[in-house]
Amino acid sequence: MLTDLPSLVNYVFAPLVKIALVIAGMMTAAAYFVLLERWMAAWVQDRKGPNRVGMPLTKLKLFGLGQPLADGVKFITKEEYTPAHVDKPLFIIAPISILAAALAVFAVVPFGDVLPPISQIPGLDQSPIPLIVAPGVDVGMVYIFALSSIAVYGVILGGWASNNKYSFLGGLRSSAQLIAYEIPLGLGILGVVLMTGSLRLDNIINDQANSGIWNCFLQPLGLFVFVIAAFAEAARLPFDLPEAEQELIGGYHTEYAGLKLLLFLVAEFLHMITASFLIVILFFGGWHFWGITGDATAPITWLQAILRIAVFSAKIFGVILFFMMVRWSWPRFRFDQLMALAWKVLLPLGLVNLVAVAVMVEYQEPLVARFGSGVYWLFGLGGWVVLIAAWMIAALVSPSHDDNRPRRPQEFDIEAELYRMFQNKSV
Amino acid sequence: MKSDDPQVKWIEEPQLGLAGRMYLPLFVQGLSVTTRHLFSRKVTVSFPEERPEIGNPLIYRGVHRLNKDEQGRVKCVACFLCATACPAHCIDIIGVESPWPDREKYPQSFSIDELRCIFCGMCEEACPVDAIELTSLFDLTGRSREEMIFDKEKLLSVYDQTKDAEPMKSKAMGGTAT
User: Fold this and answer.
1) pTM for the whole structure
2) Residues with Cβ < 8 Å from B109, sequence gap 6 or more?
C-alpha cells in the first residue's frame, strides 16, 4: 500500500513532519509559558520578573528570553535523585505516562484550519492540508477525554510510588478532583456536541465558522461550566489542591527531582494549553473571526490560512493569559468546597445547560425556517437568561461557602439529655 | 479561657448577600485588582544598574563613618560610650593621650567589625561629640572576614566619600555639636 509516492507522503511523511512540529512546538511553548507565568506573577506582584538571562555567550539580555533555556539546562544537569524508599518502576513510569498522555492529546487537536495544497510537487494529492496530526478522527472528543483521564494515573502512581504521606495525599486529592470534575467537563462538551452533531474538533470549528455564531453566545452556561471544570482538570489555581504547597509541600511530585520533575511540570503546563485549545475550539469559534478569516466554504488562500492560524493562536494566548491572571486573583478552595462545587453546583448546572441546548436544537430548524436567522439572537438571549437564573438558584440553594466558625456552646443539661435518651428508647 | 466562659463575647457575622453567594462579583473584584497591579509601576529595581531610592539618607542606618572636624582631625575623643552602648560588641577602640590641646584623648585605633554589627544605631545615639554616624551605604561587600573589620582610616574614608551627599546629621537635625 505504501509503495507509491503520494500515499507515502500522505501516510508517512506528512504525519511525521506534523508530529515533529507539534512535539517541538508544544515543548517550546510550554517552556515559554513558564517564563510568561513567572512574568505575570511578577507583574501582578509589582515586581519586574526574570529579565536577566539572554543569549548565551553574548551580553544581549533580550528581556530574559533566555530563561527557559537556562531552566531546561538546569533541570537536565541537576542531580536526578531517587529516594531509596520509592517503588522504582512505578516511580519512573508515572511522569512518563502523564507526559505521554498530555502530548498524545494533540494528535486530534487542530492548530488552524487547512493549508492550501502544495501543487509544485507532481503526483501529490491536490487537496488542502489539514493542520491536524491525525485528520478525520471521528471520535476526537472521546479520544481527548480518554487521554486526559490517563493523567489521573500518572498523578496517583507518582503519589503512591513516592512512598511519602504528602505525595500520597496529593495523589489522592488529585484523583478525587480529576474524577469529580470530569463529569461537568463532559456535560460542557456534550452541549457543544449536541449542537454540532459531531465529535470532530474541526467540524465543531467549521460549524461555528459557517454560521458565524460562536457557541459561547448560544450556551454561556456551558461555557462557564466547562471553563471552571477545565481549570480544575488542569489543577490550576483556584483548584490546585493536588500540590497545595502550604499543606502538602509539593503534592504528588514532592519526591521527584531533575528530569522526572521536569516531565511532571511540562505535563501540567500542557494540560493548561490543552484546556485553552478546547475552550477556544468549543466555545470561541476556533480560528474564526468575523471579517478577517474569510468564508469557511470557499477554497483557501495562503493569506487566509496564515490569518486563521494567527487568529487561533491569539485566542489561545488570550485564554492562557486569563488562566494566569486567575491564578493570582483568587485564593484556593478548601477541599470540601471543591467537591461541593463539582457535585452540587456544576453537575446540576451542566444538566440544565444540556436541557437548554437540547430544547434549542429541537426548535432551531422550524423557528429559523419561519422567522429567519434572527431567531439566533433570541437563542443567545435565552442562553444568558438560563445562565443567570441557574447560577442564581445554584448560589442560593448550595452556596460554595459554608460556615464553620466556632459557635457559642449550648448549655449541656445532663438530666435533660438522659431524659431524652430514655424517652427515645421507650418509644 | 474556656469557650463557655461568660467573659467570651460571641459575635455573629452578617450573612453573605446574594452578590457574595453568587461569587462572580468577588471574581470580578479579584481580577480587577490583579489587572490594576499588572500595569502599575513596579517597586523593584534592576539592582546593580539602578540603585533603589533611599527615603531619607539622614536616618538610614548603613555603613558607619567617623566624622572629621574643620581641621581634618578625627572628631572622636575616645570616650568609649559607643563601645559601651554597642549591643553586639563590635567596636574596638584604643584611646591614647591627645596631641591636641582641646581634648584629653583621641583614638589611636578605632575599628568596627561590620559583620558583627547589627546596624542598630546605638553608637550614633551614644556619641557625645557626633563623631560616629551611620551613612546610607548599604551594599558593603568583602572577600574575607578581616577585610570587613573597618579600621580608623577606612571609616574616615567613608566620611570623605559621603560627606557631600550626607551632611553631618548633627547640623541637619539640629544637634548640639559643632
Assistant:
1) 0.80
2) B92, B93, B94, B151, B152
CA A171 from chain centre, in angstroms, equals 19
Highest mean pLDDT out of A40-44, A259-263, A334-338, B167-171: A40-44
Per-residue CA distances from A145 to A139, A346, A368 (Å): 10, 18, 33
Terminal-to-terminal C-alpha distance of chain A: 83
N-terminal to C-terminal alpha carbon distance within chain B = 59
Using CB atoms, which residue from B4, B37, B44 is nearest to A44?
B37
Q: Which residues of A100-109 are buried (b: 16+ CB within 10 A; e: fewer)?
A: ebbbebbbbb
For the stretch A193-251, pLDDT in tens is 988 888 888 888 888 888 888 888 888 898 999 999 999 888 887 888 777 777 777 77
Distances (CA, A) of A72 to A54, A69, B173: 14, 5, 54
Q: What ipTM was estimated for this complex? A: 0.72
* pLDDT band per the 50, 70, 90 thresholds, residue B176: very low
- What are the residue boundaries of the structural domains of chain A, listed by start? 18-77, 80-114+129-397
Domains in chain B: boundaries: 57-172
State the amino acid at position B95 in one-letter form: G
Count CA atoms closer than 13 A to B124's CA, side-chain side. Answer: 22
Residues in chain B with CB shorter than 8 Å from the CB of A45 are: 37
pLDDT at B117: 92
Q: How far apart are CA A108 and CA B76, in angstroms?
A: 81
Residue A399 in contact with partner chain B when CB distance is under 8 A: yes
Q: Do A325 and B16 touch (CB under 8 A)?
A: no
Q: If residue A114 lies in a helix (H) or strand (E), which one and from where to where?
A: strand A114-115
* B2/chain A closest Cα distance in angstroms: 10
For residue B92, what is its C-alpha cell?
A: 574596638
Element (H, E) at B149: strand B149-150
- Count chain A–chain B contacts defined by CB atoms under 8 A: 60
Q: What percent of chain B has pLDDT over 70?
A: 92
Residues 28-87 of B with CB under 8 A from A: 30-31, 33-35, 37-46
Task: Mark yes or no for CB contact B3/A406 under 8 Å.
Answer: yes
pLDDT per position as a tens digit, B120-133 = 889 988 888 888 98
Say whether the peptide bond before residue B128 is cis (omega within 30 degrees of 0): no
Nearest to A400 among B18, B23, B43 (CB): B23
Return residues 7-46 of A near B (CB < 8 Å).
40, 43-46
Burial class (CB in 10 A: 0-12, 13-18, 19+), B40: exposed
Cell of A55: 543569549
Give every CB contact of residue A307 below 8 A, 6+ residues apart in sequence: A292, A293, A294
The architecture in CATH of the region B57-172 reads 2-Layer Sandwich (3.30)
